[in-house]
């Protein structure tokens, strides 16, 4: 059993030390009501609106989970959500926030939060699908308790790279390695999705810990609903969104992380990473080609 309090304390101290020197940070998210950018996608009666939709609660009970999606499709941009995950005994409960194209060989960028028994740490699993192919899981513990307060989970997606952020700290990059023969999401618009459901066949300790329905309903809370993306619903819009240099996220500063951001990423990888497909020798005797460019090996 890990000493969670110690982990969170060390995490907070180290993060605060590094907060002074920052480079190309994403723009500050603009909080808007749920209805501005999102609609329910299933079991709408399991979404509770608070203060006119400035925040929402997703409810999972024995009958159903629920989910929502963005109204628009986007090609590149900055997307973030402030979330407070299911507290207490959340074993087997999964909360996801992701972008996905609605195509056959789909692109997808995932945050998946895997619940746990009371006092045991959540796992944040990330994955990237390009042209229908995923199998790029990374798993980390967080440096705070994600059930105690709202934290920001965001993506910057441009032609050069995907960056996953947790509270302004990069936790993962996936660079455009098209020149190395790796598909990159560059021409399929994506929508944002979020859902809360039960997956106790795999989520917690590989499926050993089952959901305890005596604790239902399980509730995950959302706020902020920030989207600053390039709307791409028509071929003309796709064309515009693909034109280089028009948007802030496509400026030179966002072509790569700066030194300070790489330092934070190394900190996450060194202290909090529990699985990285790039170093899974059983699965990939030689690391996938993007791994060295992403500095994962
Ligand atoms: C749950 O807690 C156990 C024990 O600390 C840990 O091994 C596991 O990684 C945690 N997270 C999940 C989602 O299984």
TrEMBL record:
<comment type="function">
    <text>Catalyzes xyloglucan endohydrolysis (XEH) and/or endotransglycosylation (XET). Cleaves and religates xyloglucan polymers, an essential constituent of the primary cell wall, and thereby participates in cell wall construction of growing tissues.</text>
</comment>
<keyword id="KW-0964">Secreted</keyword>
<dbReference type="GO" id="GO:0016762">
    <property type="term" value="F:xyloglucan:xyloglucosyl transferase activity"/>
</dbReference>
<keyword id="KW-0325">Glycoprotein</keyword>
<dbReference type="GO" id="GO:0048046">
    <property type="term" value="C:apoplast"/>
</dbReference>
<feature type="active site" description="Proton donor">
    <location>
        <position position="112"/>
    </location>
</feature>
<dbReference type="InterPro" id="IPR013320">
    <property type="entry name" value="ConA-like_dom_sf"/>
</dbReference>
<dbReference type="InterPro" id="IPR044791">
    <property type="entry name" value="Beta-glucanase/XTH"/>
</dbReference>
<keyword id="KW-0808">Transferase</keyword>
<dbReference type="InterPro" id="IPR008264">
    <property type="entry name" value="Beta_glucanase"/>
</dbReference>
<dbReference type="GO" id="GO:0042546">
    <property type="term" value="P:cell wall biogenesis"/>
</dbReference>
<keyword id="KW-0961">Cell wall biogenesis/degradation</keyword>
<dbReference type="Pfam" id="PF06955">
    <property type="entry name" value="XET_C"/>
</dbReference>
<keyword id="KW-0732">Signal</keyword>
<feature type="glycosylation site" description="N-linked (GlcNAc...) asparagine">
    <location>
        <position position="116"/>
    </location>
</feature>
<keyword id="KW-1015">Disulfide bond</keyword>
<dbReference type="InterPro" id="IPR008263">
    <property type="entry name" value="GH16_AS"/>
</dbReference>
<keyword id="KW-0134">Cell wall</keyword>
<keyword id="KW-0326">Glycosidase</keyword>
<keyword id="KW-0052">Apoplast</keyword>
<dbReference type="GO" id="GO:0071555">
    <property type="term" value="P:cell wall organization"/>
</dbReference>
<dbReference type="Pfam" id="PF00722">
    <property type="entry name" value="Glyco_hydro_16"/>
</dbReference>
<protein>
    <recommendedName>
        <fullName>Xyloglucan endotransglucosylase/hydrolase</fullName>
        <ecNumber>2.4.1.207</ecNumber>
    </recommendedName>
</protein>
<dbReference type="GO" id="GO:0010411">
    <property type="term" value="P:xyloglucan metabolic process"/>
</dbReference>
<keyword id="KW-0378">Hydrolase</keyword>
<dbReference type="InterPro" id="IPR016455">
    <property type="entry name" value="XTH"/>
</dbReference>
<dbReference type="InterPro" id="IPR000757">
    <property type="entry name" value="Beta-glucanase-like"/>
</dbReference>
<feature type="domain" description="GH16">
    <location>
        <begin position="25"/>
        <end position="222"/>
    </location>
</feature>
<dbReference type="GO" id="GO:0004553">
    <property type="term" value="F:hydrolase activity, hydrolyzing O-glycosyl compounds"/>
</dbReference>
<feature type="signal peptide">
    <location>
        <begin position="1"/>
        <end position="23"/>
    </location>
</feature>
<comment type="similarity">
    <text>Belongs to the glycosyl hydrolase 16 family. XTH group 1 subfamily.</text>
</comment>
<feature type="active site" description="Nucleophile">
    <location>
        <position position="108"/>
    </location>
</feature>
<dbReference type="InterPro" id="IPR010713">
    <property type="entry name" value="XET_C"/>
</dbReference>
């Amino acid at each position: 059993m890990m000493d969670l309090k110690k982990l969170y304390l060390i995490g907070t101290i180290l993060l605060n030390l590094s907060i002074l020197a920052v480079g190309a940070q994403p723009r500050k998210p603009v909080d808007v009501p749920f209805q501005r950018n999102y609609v329910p996608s299933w079991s709408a009666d399991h979404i509770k609106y608070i203060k006119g939709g400035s925040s929402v609660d997703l409810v999972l009970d024995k009958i159903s989970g629920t989910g929502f999606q963005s109204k628009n499709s986007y090609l590149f941009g900055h997307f973030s959500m402030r979330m407070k995950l299911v507290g207490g005994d959340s074993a087997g409960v999964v909360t996801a926030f992701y972008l996905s194209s609605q195509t056959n060989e789909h692109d997808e960028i995932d945050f998946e939060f895997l619940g746990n028994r009371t006092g045991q740490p959540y796992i944040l699993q990330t994955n990237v699908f390009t042209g229908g192919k995923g199998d790029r899981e990374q798993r980390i513990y967080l440096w705070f308790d994600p059930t105690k307060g709202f934290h920001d989970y965001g993506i910057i997606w441009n032609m050069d790279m995907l960056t996953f952020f947790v509270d302004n700290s990069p936790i993962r990059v996936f660079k455009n390695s098209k020149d190395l023969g790796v598909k990159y999401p560059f021409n399929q618009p994506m929508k944002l999705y979020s859902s809360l459901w039960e997956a106790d066949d795999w989520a917690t300790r590989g499926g050993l810990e089952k959901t305890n329905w005596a604790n239902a309903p399980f509730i995950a809370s959302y706020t902020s609903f920030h989207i600053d993306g390039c709307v791409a619903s028509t071929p003309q819009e796709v064309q515009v969104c693909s034109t280089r240099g028009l948007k802030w996220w496509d400026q030179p500063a966002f072509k790569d992380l700066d030194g300070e951001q790489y330092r934070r990423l190394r900190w996450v990888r060194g202290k909090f990473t529990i699985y990285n497909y790039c170093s899974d020798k059983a699965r990939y005797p030689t690391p996938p080609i993007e791994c060295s460019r992403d500095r994962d090996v």
